[in-house]
Each structure stands twice: as structure tokens, then as C-alpha cells.
Design goal:
By secondary structure, the protein is α/β, with parallel strands linked by helices. The protein has 12 helices and 33 strands. Helix content is 22%, strand content 31%. β20, α8 and β21 form a beta-alpha-beta unit.
Length: 683
């Protein structure tokens, strides 16, 4: 798991620009690019290679920063379960405190109403977690209660409000949504409470106008005490508590495999708590300071196992679940989790799943034995090599007794660790997790500096990641792990906002996009040779591919790349080569594939130079191109937070079947070709 801060509310639009049209057309007349330095690339159709696994285009979904809160989660209320102060581990054993209760006794993100009221967190009357919020009025008088502001409401949207309340005397409670000044009421609901156990209050309303700064206030008239255990405000059309527009963007980029719940977040995650009713689930206190800085080190457990698997089914994604390490239950808790997901309805945990409305097993195949267990930041989930080798043997034995067909992923870090792990544990696992973040990248670059960084990051996959993967493969082979696949289940550029989110705002732009494009080309080309069965970018929501605003979600430049590369999924890899007559060491990074039905060739091209436009000529070897469509992502200059301009047009083949186009200076292209001689599966 790595880290992010909320970006400014800025979006680039997708513009069809005349200068790109001119570049694609080439010189007038023949349509060929006759300029010096033309890149002549051959695409060999005669011997299609291995299938490019869609699992190489996967993502992490980790509860970090604004990935869930103000991201995937549709919940509008902060600290909705009235959690108190939290303490997280920082660097050099520093303690990071967040979410302090105010001096008047009101928990973070809420404010008190009523000058004569007494407020206090109450650990003796908890509803979810360790405490609730108590408000006490000693005498009848002006109403008292609590409120929360900065709530975005959109005109025409229907919302559902929900509250968990209790009282010690008969009380009338009013919940009201209003403007920031409190003068205009958008919706209100009255509820009569009698003393006793917790009671739920709900109401729906349709927002008549848009307000980014609305307030929710819950008040009563005394004398008496009111406790609030949980509160919720959601758009009524949510999908299992998630935003449908964010899910639509995830579908747009395609999510073949989704790794969850992390990442560093797994050190504090307890899956069985996610079986409780949503409002009863205790807040998860994240004990590593980078993980959830904007929610006071808390996650409010909106996404449990069932919700996550519902999301995977909605996306058509394979789930990949990470076991929690460093807990007393250890391997048994992992085995129980597998049984809950995959066991028959007659088993203990399979019966629990069935009783919760899911009679059929989920059949989760991919499971990871911890995350970065070699890192001290994992706290209780930090393991020495010897201890982890023992844990791997225990975990694999326990979970395979439940389901022998699992694909199990162990935690790796380097050739020394990997070799010793295999020496001590053998290879009861199938894949070994590796993480790679290319660094550093300087934020806010533009002009000449931005162009230089664009080119540098475009070359990083081939110059840094490929040698690193080859070394990892050779190390596993020498250690007797030749059958063990490398799961590159975290990769990205390393950003300052990962570790200092309050100091650095998160930015995703063309520099990130070109790195992602070159990485996906690399993975598609090399995965078969290096036995890399899956990869997962860290991470899509509000940290990479998708930017979420209060009322919208859109693709970043990196998200545009993932969407562009969808034609490679399940395609057969085609060899590419430099042809005579062209530049021998040109800047174009290329990858080609043949569609599963044999009707289309997809070629992705990345201009890694960023110094000039690059003429490209494509020749099919063993087939004849007739028609092609080029879709080009490009910008005039790379700037932070900028999306890529998109231009698509037909590219006609010349009499010899060659296709010519110009790849812009900051350009990434997909060329989809139809023609003759294409054969499904290479037969």
C-alpha cells in the first residue's frame, strides 16, 4: 500500500485537435512518412505467441486516503460512527494522533448545538466500536444536539438518511438538512423516542437544489439525554454503499483482477467484523500513519467481503484477497475466510454465508499470504524471514485443506529473501509477490523539465523494471522456484504524496500516463517469458486512474491509457521487430497482439523521446493490412492533472500494405488493423 492527497477540482476535456490530424495524415499525396528517422516496425503474424492474460491489467483496491471516503464509498458523512482520537505509528517510532475530541466533548467532524447542553463520548453506551456521542440537557429550554457541515447535495438526487439513537426518557428528535447559514431547510424528519435500546430512524428526500456546503443537524428538547451511535447519508441509488459513477469508470478502464483489502491496510483489517450489520461494524483504526490521514486514521468499514465480491461481479473482476497476518488466530482465521467465500453451504462458514443471502460459493481463487511482511511499517504483521517461512507453511496447509484449488501468493522482496524463503518453506505457494515503484518524480513539472521527466518515465519500464524482473526471475530459478510466478501486485511511479499527503497534493497527468503505457507494453511482451501471471497498479481511485468529485467521476490521463489498452486483453502476442531502412534505435516502444477471433491486430505505440514527433511505418509480416484506425492520446505539453487529448481517424494502407502515421511528441497510440491472412490462434 502506498499513499495520496485530494487534488484541486480540475479536469481536462478531450479535444479533437487539428494539429494531430495533420500529423496523422503525413505528407500530402502518398500518405507515407518519408522524413529521416522513420521507425519501420514489423508485426509478425506467422507465429502468434502466448495469450496476453487480462490479469496483467489489474488494480489494487486499498482503503487509503481518499480511495474509499470521497472516492468509491457513496457515504456523505464524516466520522459517521462517532469515533474518538486515534494513534498511529509514524517513522522513527513517532506517534501520530488524529481525531481529537473537541474541548466541548464533541467528536471530530461534528459540532455541538445548544449552549446549555453537555457533550461527551460515552464508552459505556457504544453502538459501533468503542463509543457513542452523548448529548445531555438538564432542563427544558432551547434545543440541543450535534451537526455536520460541508455535505454536498445535488439537485434532483434522492438521498436516504439513517440514524441509530437511544434515550433515557421520552424525547422528540428532529433531523434536518439545511444550508450553511441554517436559514433554508431542505428536508426534515421528526421521531419520538422512548427510553430503552437503540432505535433506527430513517427518511428519504429529493434535493431541490445543489449545495456543496449543506448541513445535517440532529436536535431534541430536554430534559434528558440522547445518544447517537451511527449516522448515514447516502444517494438512494448506491450500489452496496458504493458510487455508481465510480463503478462506471472502473468498467470503462476494465478491471480483470482486483487486489483487496491491501496493502498496508491489512495489518488492521479483521474480515469477520465485516459480517456485522453495516452500522454495527466498528471503525477500523489504521495504525500506520500514511494509510488514512484524511479520516483520522479510521476506516468506517463500508466495504466488507460481501460488498467487495459484489463489486467484483459487477466489474467482471477476479478477486484477489490478502490475508491478515500477525494476529493470534493466524492461519485458522485465514482458513475460515476461505471457507466463508468458497465452502459449501453445509460447512460452518459456508452456512453463515448462505444465511446472509449468498447460498452459492463465491469461488475466490487468488489469495495472498500477507503484504510486505518484511517491512517494519507492517507493525504486528512484520515478520523475520524465519518466522514468515513457518507462517507460509502453516497458512498454505490450513487453507488448502479448505480448498485445494487456490492460487496462493507469498510475499517477496528481493533475491536474497526469496531464495531463503524457498530454502526454508519450499514452494507450497504458486506465485511470489513483488512490488516496484519507479522513483523519484518531481511534482508540478512543466515546460522543458516536464518534457524531460516525461521521456525519463517513458523509458523507466524498459531501463529499470525489465532488468529488475529478469533478476527476480533468475533468482527464483536458481533457488529452485522455476515454477513460481512473479505477481507484480503493486506498481506505479513513486510520488511524494504517498508518504506526505498533507504536504503534497496528488497529481496524475501525462507523465503518469506514459509510464503506465510503457509498463503495459512491457508486461504484455515479457510476461510469458518471465512467468509474470498477474500485475496490479496501485491504485485506481483518487490516486491513479479515476478522479472523483462530489457529483462526478472521470478518467485521469493514466485511466485513459488503461482504457486504450483493452484490445490487448486475451489477445495473442505478436512479435515486433525493427525493419531495414528505418532507424535502428528509435524512441518508439511497441507491442502487438492478435485478437482471439483472429480478425484484428492491435498495436500500441509510445513515443519515449518527447523531443520530437516520430514518423512510424507498420508492416504486417505474414498478412496484409487493408484498413486501420488510429486512436492517439497526446498533449501539447505535459502538465500536472492534465488529461490527454484524444483523436481518432482511419489510416489507409499503401499499395504494399504498409501503414504510416506520425506519433506526436507526447503521444501514445492504439492502431487497430484489419486485413487478410489473419488466422485465429495462428492456425
Amino acid at each position: 500500500m502506498k499513499n495520496v492527497h485530494r487534488a484541486p477540482l480540475r479536469h481536462g476535456a478531450l479535444f479533437l485537435v487539428a494539429w494531430t490530424t495533420a500529423l496523422l495524415a503525413g505528407p500530402t499525396g502518398s500518405g507515407l512518412c518519408a522524413e529521416p528517422g522513420v521507425q519501420r516496425i514489423g508485426v509478425d503474424l506467422s507465429k502468434p505467441g502466448p495469450v496476453i492474460s487480462p490479469l496483467l491489467f489489474g488494480f489494487n483496491l486499498e482503503h487509503t486516503r481518499y480511495c474509499m471516503w470521497k472516492g468509491l464509498s457513496a457515504e456523505l458523512l464524516a466520522n459517521r460512527k462517532f469515533a474518538g482520537e486515534s494513534v498511529a505509528d509514524g517513522w522513527k517510532q513517532a506517534k501520530v494522533r488524529r481525531g481529537a475530541v473537541a474541548s466541548d466533548g464533541v467528536v471530530a467532524h461534528w459540532y455541538g448545538i445548544g449552549q446549555t447542553a453537555k457533550f461527551a463520548p460515552d464508552g459505556k453506551q457504544p453502538y459501533a466500536g468503542k463509543q457513542s456521542q452523548r448529548i445531555r440537557l438538564a432542563a427544558r429550554g432551547p434545543s440541543a444536539g450535534i451537526g455536520q457541515g460541508e455535505i454536498p447535495l445535488q439537485a434532483g438526487t434522492t438521498y436516504t438518511a439513517r440514524f441509530q439513537l437511544r434515550t433515557d426518557v421520552s424525547l422528540g428528535v428532529v433531523a434536518r438538512l439545511c444550508d450553511a447559514a441554517g436559514r433554508k431547510t431542505y428536508a426534515s424528519q421528526s421521531l419520538r423516542l422512548e427510553p430503552g435500546d437503540w432505535r433506527q430512524g430513517t427518511f428519504d428526500f429529493r434535493a431541490a437544489e445543489t449545495d456543496l456546503h449543506a448541513k445535517l443537524e440532529i436536535t431534541f428538547e430536554g430534559p434528558g439525554s440522547l445518544w447517537l451511535g451511527a449516522a448515514s447519508l447516502l444517494p438512494a441509488d448506491h450500489f452496496h454503499g458504493m458510487r455508481r459513477d465510480v463503478i462506471a469508470r472502473l468498467n470503462e478502464i476494465s478491471v480483470p483482477i482486483l487486489r483487496w483489502p491491501g496493502g498496508n491496510f491489512t495489518r488492521d483489517y479483521r474480515w469477520q467484523e465485516g459480517l456485522l450489520p453495516l452500522d454495527r461494524r466498528p471503525p477500523i483504526a489504521s495504525t500506520w500513519h500514511e494509510t488514512l490521514p484524511f479520516t483520522d486514521n479510521y476506516d468506517f468499514h463500508e466495504l466488507g467481503t460481501d460488498e467487495f465480491l459484489a463489486l467484483c461481479r459487477e466489474l467482471g473482476a477476479e478477486p484477489c484477497i490478502t490475508f491478515t497476518m500477525g494476529i493470534a488466530a493466524g492461519a485458522q482465521e485465514a482458513a475460515d475466510w476461505v471457507e466463508y467465500c468458497n465452502g459449501a453451504a453445509q460447512t460452518r462458514w459456508g452456512r453463515t454465508r448462505a444465511e446472509r443471502g449468498h447460498p452459492e460459493p463465491y469461488r475466490v481463487r487468488y489469495w495472498t499470504i500477507g503484504n510486505e511482511v518484511w517491512g517494519e511499517w507492517m507493525g504486528p504483521a512484520f515478520y523475520s524471514l524465519e518466522k514468515y517461512a513457518d507462517a507460509v507453511k502453516q497458512y498454505t496447509a490450513a487453507v488448502r485443506r479448505v480448498d485445494p484449488g487456490l492460487v496462493l501468493i507469498a510475499s517477496g522482496v528481493g533475491t536474497g529473501w526469496d531464495r531463503k524463503l524457498i530454502e526454508q518453506a519450499g514452494t507450497p505457494f504458486d506465485w511470489l509477490s513483488r512490488h516496484e515503484y519507479c522513483k523519484p518524480v518531481t511534482q508540478g513539472l512543466s515546460g522543458a523539465a516536464g518534457a524531460a521527466e516525461y521521456a525519463r518515465q517513458a523509458r523507466r519500464p524498459s531501463e529499470v523494471v525489465l532488468p529488475w524482473l529478469r533478476e527476480a526471475r533468475q533468482g527464483l530459478d536458481r533457488a529452485g522456484g522455476s515454477r513460481v510466478g512473479i505477481a507484480l501486485d503493486e506498481w506505479n511511479i513513486w510520488h511524494d504524496w504517498f508518504v506526505a499527503p498533507f504536504k503534497h497534493e496528488w497529481h496524475i497527468g501525462p507523465i503518469d500516463a506514459v509510464f503506465a503505457a510503457a509498463m503495459l507494453n512491457l508486461l504484455a511482451r515479457e510476461a510469458g517469458t518471465l512467468n509474470v501471471p498477474m500485475a496490479a497498479m496501485f491504485q485506481p481511485i483518487n490516486e491513479g486512474a479515476i478522479r472523483v468529485e462530489p457529483f462526478s467521476a472521470s478518467l485521469t490521463a493514466m485511466g485513459q491509457v488503461f482504457a486504450l489498452y483493452r484490445p490487448h486483453h486475451d489477445g495473442r502476442l505478436l512479435a515486433t521487430s525493427r525493419l531495414q531502412g528505418g532507424s535502428d534505435a528509435g524512441p518508439v516502444d511497441a507491442c502487438a497482439s492478435l485478437s482471439a477471433d483472429g480478425k484484428r491486430v492491435a498495436v500500441t505505440l509510445v513515443n519515449t523521446a518527447a523531443a520530437s514527433d516520430c514518423p512510424v511505418q507498420l508492416t504486417l509480416l505474414g498478412g496484409t493490412a487493408r484498413n486501420a484506425t488510429a486512436t492517439i492520446l497526446s498533449v501539447r505539453e505535459p502538465r500536472p492533472d492534465q488529461t490527454m487529448d484524444v483523436q481518432s481517424r482511419q489510416v489507409l494502407a499503401d499499395a504494399g500494405g504498409k501503414l504510416s502515421l506520425v506519433l506526436p511528441r507526447f503521444g501514445i497510440a492504439l492502431v487497430e488493423i484489419t486485413g487478410e491472412g489473419f488466422r485465429p490462434g495462428g492456425k
